[in-house]
Amino acid sequence: MKMPVGKDRIIVIGGGIQGCATAYFLARRGQDVTLLEKDHIARQASGVNAGGVRRLGRDPIEIPLSLASMDIWRSLQDHIGDHVDAFHPCFYLKVALDEDGQALGVDRIDALRKVGFQHEIWLEDPEIQRRLPHLSCPTYGGILVEGDGWALPWRIVQGFASAAVRNGARLVEDCRVISLERGGSGWQVHTTKGLFEAAQVVNCAGAWAAGLAALAGEAKFPLSPYAPMLAVTDRRPAILPAVMGVLGQTLSLKQLHTGQFVIGGGVRAHANLETSRGEVDIPALAASMNLATTLFADITSARIIRCWSGIEGYMPDDLPVIGRGSQPGLVHGFGFSAHGFQLGPAVGEALADLVMGQQPRISLAPFSPNRFETV
Amino acid sequence: MSVRSDYDLVIIGAGPAGLAAAIEASRHDLSTLVLDDQPAPGGQVYRNITRNRGQRHASAFLGNDYWSGSRLVDGFAHVSANVLTESRVWQITSDRQVLFSRHGKAQNVRAGAVLVANGAMERPMPIAGWTLPGVMSVGAAQTMLKTSGSGADGAVFVGSGPLFYLTVWQYLQAGFGVKAVVDTAPARMRPEHYVLAIPALLQPILLLKGLRWRAAIRRKTDYHAGATSVVIAGEDSATGVTFQDTSGRKQNIPAKHVFIHQGVVPNVNLTMATDLRHQWHPRQLCWIPQTDMFGESSVDGIFIAGDGMGIAGATAAALSGRLAARRIIARVKRRPFFMTPFWRALKWRQAAIRPFLDSLFKPPDDWRVPKEDHAIVCRCEALTKADVNAAIALGVSGPNQLKSYCRAGMGRCQGRMCALTIQKMIHNHNGGSEEEIGYLRIRPPIRPLTVGELAALAHEDAGR
Q1: Number of domains in chain B
Q2: Is any Cβ of chain A less than 8 angstroms from the Cβ of B461?
Q3: In this complex, do B444 and A307 lie within 8 Å of one another by their Cβ atoms?
């Protein structure tokens, strides 16, 4: 597919939440943008993650970005249109089940207060029991964030992709990048669907982003692919109006509008970048299941109908890479290390700012692509 | 019996293929574990044979083919293998861990080789009204007959295929009143059927048996050949069956019980969930795992035997089980494997009659996808043909993309009742080859596994 070189042509690579949100914000600002995706939209981690939309428990470095993103989530209607039931704000609660967990939580609240963040608050057990009458165990208190919730990941990502297209973006699926070369005034992107030319390229290729950066001649990023795992149960009576976790342990637990429970908790399976597939290791989910049944005995008899994983890229410091690459006309946004879904909208906006030479409203310095070179 | 943590061979399924393989492996002292769903060995075809034998006179109606399973079950009674009945295998990993639940607890064994012998399942028959209370599959009706000798008087049987005629015949032998048989196979054999019938003559006993069943059914029931446009009527439950007969007349038979069937297909959910390579079988219109001539799949050490590798019937299944076991024995004992006469016997039998049966009972396109827009396609998510077609029209490349749009195939049946229908509907819209459309991606656990059962694995690890 040979296209005339447009001065402001921008190519976004990767049809996950970051790429789709970026394409959307660029298109809405009138830019000439094309989104390339090797499979189809939201095929990997962006489309099949736990769907947690949370500010709770984030590294203080990314809290400003997370808060900014929440503003966009709250006005999602204005951006992606009719997706009323795709985002379900409720409250997020991370409870302590022992004194160690309690100490972790209390210390965290103190630390956040000191740097000026007020969104996480401490709840004592009676209030937790009042909010969750079906809880089966006493707690040592817990951290609450009001207004956090969950979303249907595929719907959200597809929503941004469709909104991008409505605003004039071009979307090319089943299009894998073969090579990336500087040429003329910008980039020549050779793909399985032909040659694309652009002034700037945005790398939102998730677990495949380091490979793409290498194609562009960048230094090697320390990005590792894994496939975080989740399980979903059959439909059960509604007992859980919140998204839940446990302090000091890895659990993510929610009940969808269908009554199905989604249970996960940071357990990663092996991922194969060649085949784009991960094999689920169901026994590794046993500890999360155990924790879920401790919280709610009613879940014990729920039937797991499916376990799955989506491939995600992890950085050594668990922080994303967001910023200009060392090559001119190349911008990176990847390595979200399994907590980028909520950040997506703000990241998309920030990447659009970078591409257009504007100052992002949140400082991206902590996410600099160069941060590993100085170490 | 103490269960070890690893075995030379783990066999999944105690039907003819699994039983024959276990007997063979036992003869050569392989440490073997047999896992089976049911309380007693026999699989679907010889279900409950050990108990029914005690009252053989009372259950004589099951017929000689059923009782011929005695030999395998007797041989199996003496094997050295560990046998765990009531075990539901929910995943095999590509490094040959076999994960299963038994009596409320998840368990895990390692295997030098795995033999998947979990047989076939009935092809979904999505005609209008198929989800109404009172409608049941013919296979389920036969299961009731075998486990408890129970059945329903005055049922109407709708469909075709060997299992269909056998079950009607067993129903009659057992003394249940069959109200009508609505046969959906073509009323007259077409030229291609005659051509394929010639090699089938090498299997005269099988052919005669089929003709005998059909003759008995014609004689003893209100029989309608070549029925088309079949619909099950009813609001809250089935009230009758309507169809068009060969003369083009519309018929209506009132009935509270309707048993439907249009053949069986390999039970591929387990092998699909392990990501074994599969291929489309254009004659049987189903997916089969790709194997070599001994049944070894695309993943090292995972073998398939029996109807799970393509529908061929009980005798062929036992032969393929024996053959795979021989190959596995050679693998474990590190000695050369010689072609056995079993192989030739197996091929012979498969080749002779199957193409004829496959072509005679091939479900026509309008039986694979319902005609009526309001007919349910995906039972779990209650999606009609119109619902699914609306999502397909948005532009999808296959079932995996479709499920993101409308949740078709995401319910608890894990595609068993809808995946073949959905695949055909996408094929009807997109064209191209059905193999390229592909099957729904199957995710483990493929059998019931409760959160509590899986949580029990965590307790076990903590105790170690």
Answers
A1: 3
A2: yes
A3: yes
Model pTM score: 0.90
ipTM of this complex: 0.90
> So what's the pLDDT on residue A6?
42
Closest-CA residue of B relative to A309 is B443
Kindly list the residues from chain B whose CB atom is less than 8 angstroms away from the CB atom of residue A277: 275
Inter-chain touch A289–B455, beta carbons under 8 Å: yes
Q: Is B98 helix (H, G, I), strand (E, B) or coil?
A: strand
Which residues does A contribute to its contact with B (CB < 8 Å)?
40, 42, 47, 154, 158, 174, 231, 233-234, 261, 263, 277, 279-283, 285-287, 289-290, 292-293, 299-308
Residues B133 and B196 in one domain: yes
- What is the largest distance, in Å, between two alpha-carbon atoms of chain A? 67
Asked if residue B117 and residue B81 are part of one domain, the reply reads yes
Contacts of B451 in chain A (CB under 8 A): 233, 261, 263, 289, 292-293, 299-304
Inter-chain CB proximity A40 and B445 less than 8 Å: no
> In the 3-class helix/strand/coil scheme, how is B37-57 assigned residue by residue?
CCCCCCCCCCCCHHHHHHCCC
The tens digit of pLDDT for each residue in A121-174 reads 999 999 999 999 999 999 999 999 999 999 999 999 999 999 999 999 999 999
User: B219 and B199, same structural domain?
Assistant: yes
* CATH architecture group of domain A88-148+224-314: 2-Layer Sandwich (3.30)
Strands (E), A271-345: 271-272, 277-278, 303-309, 312-314, 321-324, 330-334
Segments forming the whole domain that contains residue B34? 6-121+265-337
CB-based contact A173:A14 (threshold 8 Å): no
- pLDDT by residue (tens digit) across B118-175? 999 999 999 999 999 999 999 999 999 998 888 999 999 999 999 999 999 999 999 9
B275 and B258 in a common domain: no
At B397-451, the pLDDT tens digits run 899 989 988 999 998 899 999 999 999 999 999 999 999 999 999 999 999 899 9
**Among A281, A290, A304, beta carbon nearest to B449:** A304
Pairing of strands B178-183, B278-281: unpaired
What secondary structure does DSSP assign to A229-286, as a single string? EEEEEEE------SEEEETTS--EEEE-TTSEEEEEEEEEE-EETTTTEE---GGGGH
Q: Tell me which residue of A37, A92, A31, A95 sits closest to A66, measured CA to CA.
A: A92
Q: Cα distance from A227 to chain B (closest Cα, Å)?
A: 14
Q: Give me the CATH topology for the region A10-48+155-222+316-372.
A: FAD/NAD(P)-binding domain (3.50.50)
Of A286, A290, A307, the CB nearest to B445: A307
User: Is the CB of residue A286 less than 8 Å from the CB of residue B455?
Assistant: yes
Q: Hey, what are A234's tokens? A: 């059959």
Angle at A220 between CA A219 and CA A221, to 5 degrees: 115
Tell me how crowded residue B289 is: count the other CB atoms within 10 A of its CB. Answer: 26
**Beta partners for residue A196, in sequence order:** A189
